[in-house]
Each structure stands twice: as structure tokens, then as C-alpha cells.
Amino acid sequence: MNQIDVDQTLNSLADKLRPLLENKPVMIGIHTGGAWVAQRLHDILAMDDAIGTLDISFYRDDFTRIGLNPQVKASDLPFDVDDRHIILVDDVLHTGRTIRAAMNEIFDYGRPASITLVVLICRDGRELPIQADVIGETVTLKPNQEIKLTGPDTLALEIQEVGA
Amino acid sequence: MTEDLQFGKDGRLHHFLSIEGLKRETIVEILDTAESFISVGEREIKKVPLLRGKTVVNLFFESSTRTRTTFEIAAKRLSADVINLNPSISSTKKGETVLDTIDNLEAMHTDLFVVRHANSGAAHLIANHLPPHVRLINAGDGRHSHPTQAMLDVFTIRQYKKEFSGLKVAIVGDILHSRVARSLIHALNILGVPDVRVVAPKTLLPTAVELLGVHPYHNMYEGLEDVDVVVMLRLQRERMEGALIPSEQEYFRVYGLTEEKLSVAKDDAIVMHPGPMNRGLEIDSAVADGPRAVILPQVTNGIAVRMAIMALIMGGNVARERKGKE
User: Fold this and answer.
1) Which end of chain B, C or N, has fewer beta carbons within 10 A?
2) pLDDT tens digit string along B35-87?
3) Which domains does chain A have, with CATH numbers?
4) Is A72 an 8 Å CB contact of chain B?
């Protein structure tokens, strides 16, 4: 995965997002990797509103199977969601379940005007009809592979073999 | 016995019965989780879907307003269906035993019981009786234990004092009858608070109270000197048998918390009380309504702490039961 230059990808994402700024959107990053990506994009785009972060642990669909994530953090949306255009940021779009949970949580804060999904990496393996609007890189992985963003000081991508 | 019942085979919290037997990491995990639930209570829609479709029965054999209400709100904010029962005025009056009441409610597919009972050990007795997929939280049993109150107390202390190391905490009043005091002392010890004091007349202290890991005082000015936290307890008039205090006026004069007595504590000391307060008996109104009282924040925190405990013991049921069958 060394061929993906994260900084370069972030810059190209920011370029694609620039036209959206006329709607005065607010940016929300999904904890943890998505929040890192959102912070970078927020800086590059010099957005005015404070950045929001979501921890979707309370909205996961696997709570009855695996229980609560022990590292759950509070969600923080320091703005009114009602009628705002939201740029929702995650590091990797995989099954789509995280995004489903995140959208449910956002609607518990209010009714946004729109949500645009931005991901650094779009990989295969969707389990829900959810697609990203703005994509950094698209990758296809083997079923036993996962792609993970590490940070927060230096963002880098690594591919891990899981459950061998 | 406590430990076996409280933890499942996978080492995770299964029931929440007492502070005794909990590890420091478990207590800190509950506090951290509760912190993230605080924000849920502050937003427009105060609900998360974690316990959607689960049935929670609040079974209060002994009456309660604050604890029962905050448990009810906590369960509802987790999207559970909540039923409140006060069997002392229904089935038990007709002669049904506690375990028969439990069996009947369990037959209605209850997922979680929250139980308060006047007898010490009632929660353990019921937990021991429940099938493995049903959970129980002890909301106070006799003089023994009130672990969720202790958790919200240490949550409040951490909120205002940040760290437990270096703290001096004084628990004042009717220690003898208080399950709150017992649970709180265990929690403070496990969290490493170096100086835990109990301040009370000899008649309201259990014998050999030092064995609990506390320093006993009989004088308020000595006991409150330089403390960071003052926890006032309710004088439990209904549990008093015989003359344990000379008179209520005399008790207030010697042990009632006034601004004057509080002046020997640290300037930034906080004053807590589990409620319900007897104003003019264990606490003066000027203190209860004063700037150092955090009695109402305790109530607010109680919701988040109870949400955290419910979420932690109810999560992962399916996997755990599947594992159990293997």
C-alpha cells in the first residue's frame, strides 16, 4: 500500500470538496480514523465552523453480538445540525455499516439539509446500499485483508492479513 | 461467591451486585463509558438504540424515588422497554415469595432486573436463581450494598477532582445503617484514595470499622480538616432501633454540616449527599444550596452511570450465550 500517498490523496480530496464550500457545510469525522482525515481536510480547506466527531459505538448493529466498544468516546457536534449541509468523513468505506450507524446518530441530533460522504479509501465488500460521493482511492482487497489508517501524527495506510 | 456471580465465564461483567470484587480497571471502564453517555442526555433526542427491544423490570421491594426514576430514565435513554413494579404493595402482600415473583416476570421474557430489597443479600439470592441470559443490577440491598450509588459518587468525585490519588474524603453520619457508605468505601479503596475517613458518633459506626480501610473520627472539625470531598449521609430514622442519638437538635449541633464546620475543609472541597436530604438534621440548608454542593450534579450523573452499567452488562449477550453452549 506504499503506492498510496496519503497527503497527496488528501489534497486531491480537498480539491474535489472545494466547490461544496459555497453551501457553508459543516464537517463531521467518524472516530478514530475518519476524525483524523476530517481534521486534515478541515485544515486544508480552512473551514470556519468547528469540526464535529462521531463515535458510533452506541449505534452499532453488533452490540448484542460483541458488546460495547470499551474505548467508546463521546460524540461531539459543536453546531446545530438542523438544515446544515454535512460533509461526513471516514477513512475506509467497507461494509457500509459504520456509515449507516453514523447517519442514524446524526439524525438524533437534528435534520440536516444533506449529507455528503467522503472517504479516503473505498474498498470492496459492501453489505449495504451505501456509496461514497467523494473518494480518495479505490482498492480491491482479498477477503482476508483489511486496510487500516494509522496516525494521528503521520497518516499512513497499511494492509493487514486477518484471521489467517 | 460474589465474584463468581458478577462475572461471566469470559471474565466480563455479567451482573452488577456489589463493588467488592471489582477490579480497578472495571470501575474505570464504567466511569469512562458513563462519560460518553453524558452527552446523550444533553442533546435534542436523548436516546441511543443499544437496548432496543429489551425489557427492563425495575423491581423495588423497598420504596425509592431518585434511584428508581434515574434507572427508568437510563433504561429509556437506551431505548429499552421499562416496567416499574413495587411488589410490596402487590404480589408479596398476597403471599408470593420473591423468587416466585422473579420467575413470573422472567416468564414474561424480562432481559434485565433492577432490584432493590430491604434484606441484605437479596440481590445475590436472585442473581443466583436467574437463568444465564437474564441480567441483574443491585439497586440497594438492606445495609449491605448500593453499588450504582457508589459508582455515581466516584464519577462525581472524578468530575470535580480529576484524580483519586492524593484525595482526602470524609464520609459523615449514619455509617452503621448505610449501604451507600459501605459501597463507597470499597470503591474509594479500589481506586486508590489514600485517606478515607468516616465521621460519626460511636453509636453510628460499625464495630471495627477500621477493617474497612477507613480512619474513624468522632469530631467534625478533626474529621473534615483539609478534606477535598465531604459525603453526607442521611440519618436513617426508619432504621434506628433504640436511642442511637441523644436528640435530633443535639445531632445537628455536633454532626450537622454547616458552613462553619465546612470551613476547616479545603477551599475547593465539594459536598455530596445521596439524598433524600434531612435539612436541618445532617445538613444545613445554607450548605445544601451553597456553591460547594454538587448534590444535583450527582443526580444527573446517576443517569449516565446507570446507562453505562446497563450497556456493559447487556452487551455481547448473544456471543456469550453461544460460547456457553459450545
Assistant:
1) C
2) 999 989 888 889 999 999 999 999 999 988 899 999 999 999 999 999 999 88
3) 6-161 (3.40.50.2020)
4) yes
In angstroms, the separation between the Cα of residue B16 and the nearest Cα of chain A is: 16
pLDDT at B241: 64
pTM for the predicted model, two decimal places: 0.89
Output the furthest CA–CA distance in chain A (Å, rounded). Answer: 48
Q: Specify the pLDDT at position A34.
A: 97
CA distance A118 to A102: 13
**Which tens digit of pLDDT belongs to each residue from B77-96?**
999 999 999 887 666 667 77
**Contact check, Cβ <8 Å, B315/A68:** yes
A76 and chain B: CB distance < 8 Å anywhere?
yes
Distance in Å, alpha carbon of A77 to nearest chain B alpha carbon: 10
Minimal C-alpha gap between B204 and chain A (Å): 40
Pick the CATH number of B147-296 from 3.40.50.620, 3.40.250.10, 1.10.1900.20, 3.40.50.1370: 3.40.50.1370
Return the residue of B nearest to A79 by Cα.
Answer: B43
Question: How is residue B23 written as a grid cell?
Answer: 477490579
Which chain B residues touch A59 with a CB distance below 8 Å?
48-49
- Identity of the residue numbered B293: A
Cell of B18: 456489589
For the CA atoms of B284, B288, B293, B296, the dihedral, rounded to the nearest 10 degrees, stands at 160
Query: Peptide bond preceding A32: is omega within 30 degrees of 0, i.e. cis?
Result: yes
Q: How far apart are CA B175 and CA B158, in angstroms?
A: 22
Domains in chain B: boundaries: 2-145+300-317, 147-296
**ipTM of this predicted structure:** 0.80
